[in-house]
Amino acid sequence: MMQMIEGICAGCGQSQLVSVVDPIGTNDAAQRANELATKKCGCEESKKITAWITTLEVVHRVCGPEGENAGFEKIDLDAETGVEEVARLVFDRTVDKAQIELAKSVITIKPKGDGVSITRKSTLEIGE
Ligand SMILES: [Zn+2]
User: Fold this and answer.
1) CA 46–ligand 1 middle distance (angstroms)
2) Where are the domains of the chain?
3) 118 with 109: CB under 8 angstroms?
4) Starting at the edge strand that comes first in sequence, how are the strands of the sheet with 115-122 ordered?
5) How remote is the CA of residue 5 from the centroid of ligand 1, in Å?
6) Looking at the DSSP assignment, which residues form a beta bridge with residue 59?
7) Ligand 1: distance of its center to the CA of 3 in Å?
8) How many whole angstroms from 13 Cα to the centroid of ligand 1?
9) Per-residue pLDDT tens for 56-106?
10) Is the pLDDT of residue 23 over 70?
């Protein structure tokens, strides 16, 4: 079921009607509506916020289930939080590029457009 509710842009505070599909609870629906309103708004601040949300999603994908599906070792939540923190530094352009070695892989974070690109490469090695 779809529902039209008012969401508020987290960047500029402008409200607009957005459609939320199958809201689970009142809080979830409001949160979802705010996210959608922020995505739709297009103000400078909303673009930054949306790019950061996307970055967090990618961090979670490469560290979490998608990484495991691709054959990588699981990265625990503490380490994932660390990757998020480093991603923030690159996102804010505080550092130019970062590489993190963990769980037999290298995660490379570099600037891309308004956000960052995040890739994970295996460092599996045999021999001596
Ligand atoms: Zn806005």
Assistant:
1) 5
2) 2-42, 45-122
3) yes
4) 98-102, 105-112, 115-122
5) 17
6) none
7) 22
8) 6
9) 999 999 999 889 999 999 999 999 999 999 999 999 999 999 999 999 999
10) no
